[in-house]
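Good morning C.,

I know you're traveling, so I'll keep this short. The sequence:
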Amino acid sequence: SHEEDHNNLMDMACAGIPLFLKHYRGTSTYYAVVHLASFVPPDRLKSVSTVCSACVSHLKQVSEVTPPAELEVVVHALCSWGRFADIQDLVIDWLDQAFRCEGLNQSQIPKEEMKQRRVRFVAKGGKPMVALQLLDTVFSHPLNSTRVLNKSYNMIHDLYVYLERIKVVVERRLLGGLPLDSPMLSDKFLLKCMYRYAILILILH
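The tokens, ready to paste straight into the viewer:
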């Protein structure tokens, strides 16, 4: 039957994925294996592979020079496994470093309506532009966007509430007149972050 064939394929994938990941680590084929793994339910992967956790660890190492194709594979896999929370935690940790420059990080102005995040790891240094790139990667892909909206709507709303502080930074920039050009907080970041904030409004409604 179709169900039996499907289960057999899942069993074959679960048997091969750990071996393929180990053998092809450090090569472009590794990402093809991650993509294959993204089709396997996470509960079936847990017993044979740590690929889910490996993808989260991989995200912590990305930078602005990381090939977009690699980033897309990892983000797509995490979204398919229902791990958007891991992406969001990292995004907010990195963005917080930028907002700290203006005294607008979470510890300075915590939002009462924003649920307490469970910190899975502490980001070393901020990567605000990479954080926005991660969000672009999630929401520019229709399937990822749909999955996240269906499973994590409240988290997206929390992210929207968090990003509201970009309006304060933009207002200060317009009143001050001087361009921002630091690696942590730049005019380019303001434009892209304001765009992402506006797009989230449309996504949520």
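Safe travels,
E.
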